[in-house]
Amino acid sequence: MPNARKTIRLTAYHFFQMGKFLLPLCALLAAGSAAVVARIFIRQCEQRAPVSFQSILVQPAFFALFYAAYAMLFAGLLLYFFRYVNGTKSVYALRALPLGAGGVFWSILLSMLAAVLLLWVVQFLSVYAGYGVYRLAAALYQSPGGEPGMSRLGVVAALPEAQWAPPENELYLAFVRTPLLQLFYPRHPFFWLLAAAAVLLPVISGAYLTISFYGRRWGAVIPSGVAWSCMFVCLWALHRVGRWAMEDLVIAVFALLFLAMSMGYMLMVAHKLCRSSNLG
Amino acid sequence: MKGRTKAWLRILAAALAVIVCSGIGLFLQRNREGLFFAAQKGDASVLERISVAGVLGDDFHSVSFASHGTAFTHKMRRQVLFAEGPAHHSVSYYYEPLPGTEVEREQSVSSDAAVGNPDGSFSPLEQSVLLETAGQFLLCLSDTQTSIGYYPYRLKTQVVYQKRLTVQYPVLEGEKAGVPHILDLPAGSVLSDAARSGFRNIVRLGERWYAITPTDAFCRGTGGIYDLTEQLGLPDWSDHQPPVTERENLYPIDLEDGSNEIVSIEACGELLAVFIRSNGVLKMHIVNPQTWRMERVVELPGWEQVPTYESFHVQGGYAVLTGRQDEDTLPDGTAEQALLCDVINLREGAVVERVRDRLPAPGGDRLQTAADALYADDTLYLLFYAGVATRAEEARQQRRYPYLIAYSGGRRVFECAVDSGQREDARARTPQMRDYQELRLQKEDD
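^ inputs. structure came back:
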């Protein structure tokens, strides 16, 4: 049996094992996003103030949801794999497969990547789900025959105007004009790189920390901390598009460069440590 | 185990498909801004002969648009991280008592300054000042003064300000320091803070920057045009007061004891237009910068009651000068305004069309500065910014939009607004209001 196929099988195993916390996390995120949109929309209606979908997306609740899910996933990945490399009953059978250290390493990396990618897609789709709620509510508030201020669902809300249709390209505008959402629809090389880094950083730093901690190398938190700090600087840069001074641009570019270098270093060291360990 | 691998691969494929399909769906929405000519009044056929173009955007996203007849096309522009604006310079005056003039000096204490308290309030701060009173002041062209009182450069002019004035200088350790302040300056003086920002007193022609010496009724001597290209290349911060330098006055203008007031300078293609008010009458001198000779002078009657014009646009051999004049006072206390507009044929040096009209107020909004003007086929097109009448709203929520007016034979024949999704930004309080920029009018066959 080729080693690659075994690696893929182990990766799939990890992914579904992680699914025990990953899937509820994704479901919670999507439901939370839709709930936040609906709540803000109805509250604005009650205040007789029209609100655009873009205004809803810049609410702190939306940002908190996104970053909390991101952090929870990273913590979950670390915990799962730390338990795995330290040995549990359920994985002894898999560990016994003649896989080699490289196979174990790639299975960790690929399953983490799949988990982050899944969360990324759910984050992306939760915006769509929120927009669906917004669009539906906006349609209900202007349904023919409906009393102003009273939707057919019975939600009491005062309408500022009878006709209240979001513009045709509102979802597109929400993506391109909301700082955080530029990670999901990047239109500039800087944001393409940043989006790639946002997907890869939890994966690489997660694998690196897991394998380093397995060998009791606690100093691994330093390169990982540097990389995450650079990521936060780049995320700060997300909010300053078009309003940058030259020094802001230099800081952001250097942060991205350091981030890439840190990730490269962590990937290299993790691979080396894994080979010299008894994980395989 | 095999089934699990297949399921994992399917999930991955579905995730990638979602990302790709959604990206395509969003990309297809990029050019659906819904631009249209709204509230059309009059003969819309004039739209067939011109194109209204510009950019609608904010820091994150912008589209460029252009009209073709009554329809619009638009295109998403590349996102930029670092938006650098066009080079801009202003010119103001550095002044000092004319050498040889008697100067009265007096030490005093001023309580004009204030110091901030931790609770946000301000307490008056007594400051030692030096008061210098003189009857004649030497004027030097310069850029805006730094906070410690130094100028980037000082270029001596042949203009003298002849009025008894008292200048207050802050004093620090026995020396003059900081920004001086004139105590008894007449309203509208070229030395005032309002004039300091510079109303069209510097212009770029090719790679060179030319500045005029703006003057008022108290100015004496000879005004003119100076080449400031080298001075503008100097660093705008200095730790010492630079020496006063001299340059050739390229186009000397005799001020005739203050009866000639130099108002502004404009670029007219490869020529320069210098506006001079002679005994109250506005005149436009068309000057060739190759020879520094006046080629034509155009007299512009009707601008006597207007302090200055608002906009000047040149296109297709015609210059369009617009301004406004207060007329009746409206119930809300604001003044109803009349539009003044002269179209000048630059080749003949003559006014070919003159418009005097009451400015419309579309939907209660006010017309602001003219963004562009075009005279073509005996029709004058003026493209204004229109905006909310009140200033109560936050600046970023103030919507302004293009408003086009066409005149033929001095009569208004057509008017309309350009509308788009920007209206939704204002109505639904989108975090950042998009703005129209780089508005321009072009002949459709250009």
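The first helix of chain A runs from residue 3 to 46. The two ends of chain A are 16 Å apart (CA to CA).
thumbs up if we can close this ticket
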